[in-house]
Design goal:
With 380 residues, the protein is α+β, with helices and mostly antiparallel strands. The chain has helices spanning 9-17, 29-32, 51-55, 59-63, 103-108, 120-123, 125-134, 151-170, 265-273, 277-288, 294-310, 323-335, 337-352, 357-360, 363-379; strands at 2-3, 23-27, 43-48, 83-88, 91-97, 113-119, 138-140, 171-179, 182-189, 199-204, 211-212, 221-222, 234-242, 247-255, 258-259. The chain is flat.
């Protein structure tokens, strides 16, 4: 299964030749329609269903941004993700990163892909595709007459890319206090950028709504206050322009220099990400596990978590939640005590950010950890 905003016939042919079974392609309608029908013959093609993109309408840029009320659903738009899903036996591999399914990405550019491995049932092609379908994000692609961008459209696309690159080099993010433990992100320009007639908007990745950039002002954009753990250097930029036939958008994600960041942000992010018992135990288990052993240990923990939430059904007490961690803790104490040091720093950072690790760790695991950590410190 290939998920890619941009696709090329050479890359599709190379990928299709390596697939033993059926191949699925998920792409953007405006890109898929430029392909010759022969390039996707024998491939199950689906379109990322984005009505705003298909209609070329962006009400935020016309009437100004609107902030959704609390609890309102967030409408997402635009396919930017690149993913490749493969299967072998009962296992699945998901590759995510920067590479589009194009000849340039596969043969010319410097790209990164990260391999994630898991069970076929949970992370295989059917699971990924069904999840996208259930969310209403896919629809079958209806192949039609091949379309070509006109010269004005191609020129505008290049202008959008050039402007996005210049803005990514010129923009800086800054944080200012907004009271009651909240912080307001701002965007500023380190030097002037001439965008001509193009419109530019941005948002922190944690925010749903794009806001227009006033490039002649300082700051050029101000965002709503957010929590310490939600502050990030990653922003979404949209650069837009219009030809005689339609509007064009370019959406990119950029990592900007982030100034005046308050102390404790990393600790707050960690505490929020691991803010429930199940996630914290899984993360500790992964820190302790040896290569190739994590699946078995996670399966044991999954079984115990299920028994604790539903009961054993026999009237007998559920086994202690610390049981799957006893063996790897003792092994780490003997072979690689630095892993225990990582867990000690993790728990201290979470406590510093205000997390109550006593509530997150089962009592038997808290006692076990205290004893093993004292032994580690005595040896160092």
């Amino acid at each position: 299964m290939v998920v890619s905003p941009f696709v090329g016939p050479e890359a599709l042919a190379a990928l299709h030749a390596q697939v033993r079974e059926d191949m699925t392609l998920v792409g953007r309608f405006d890109e898929l329609r430029t392909l010759d029908p022969g390039a996707i013959q024998g491939i199950d093609v689906e379109v990322f269903d984005d009505p705003a993109m298909l209609l070329d309408v962006d009400e935020d840029l016309v009437d100004g941004p609107t902030v959704p009320e609390e609890g309102d659903p967030v409408e997402l738009s635009g396919l930017h993700a690149k993913a490749y899903v493969g299967e072998r036996g009962r296992r699945a591999a998901v590759y995510v990163g920067s590479a589009n399914a194009t000849k340039g990405a596969f043969a010319l550019n410097v790209e990164f892909l990260v391999e994630l491995e898991g069970s076929r049932k949970q992370h295989g092609i059917d699971a990924v595709r069904d999840g996208l379908r259930d969310a209403g994000l896919l629809r079958p692609f209806q192949a039609g007459k091949r379309a070509q961008l006109d010269e004005a459209g191609e020129s505008l696309e290049r202008a959008l890319e050039r402007t996005a690159h210049e803005l990514a080099m010129a923009l800086r993010a800054r944080v200012e206090p907004a009271g009651e433990g909240r912080w307001r992100p701002l965007l500023e320009l380190s030097h002037a950028v001439d965008v001509g007639d193009l419109a530019v908007s941005a948002r922190p990745l944690a925010e749903p709504t794009l806001r227009p950039l006033q490039l002649g002002a300082s700051p050029c954009c101000t965002f709503p206050p957010t929590s310490l753990s939600s502050l990030s250097a990653f922003f979404a930029l949209r650069v837009s322009g219009r030809t005689a036939s339609r509007e064009h958008h370019l959406d990119v994600t950029v990592r900007l220099p982030l100034d005046d960041v308050p102390d404790g942000r990393i600790e707050a992010v960690t505490a929020e990400l691991l803010g429930d018992r199940e996630r914290l135990l899984r993360f500790i288990l992964l820190l302790l596990s040896d290569e190739g052993d994590s699946d078995r240990m996670l399966d044991e923990l999954e079984t115990l978590l299920g028994e604790h939430s539903a009961g054993t059904g026999t009237g007998a007490p559920a086994p202690p939640l610390g049981l799957p961690l006893l063996e790897p803790m003792l092994r780490a104490l003997h072979r690689s005590p630095e892993r225990l040091g990582e867990i000690d720093r993790l728990l201290r950072d979470m406590r510093q950010a205000g997390a109550n690790t006593t509530d997150l760790l089962p009592p038997e695991l808290e006692a076990l950890w205290t004893t093993i950590n004292e032994l580690r410190e005595a040896r160092t």
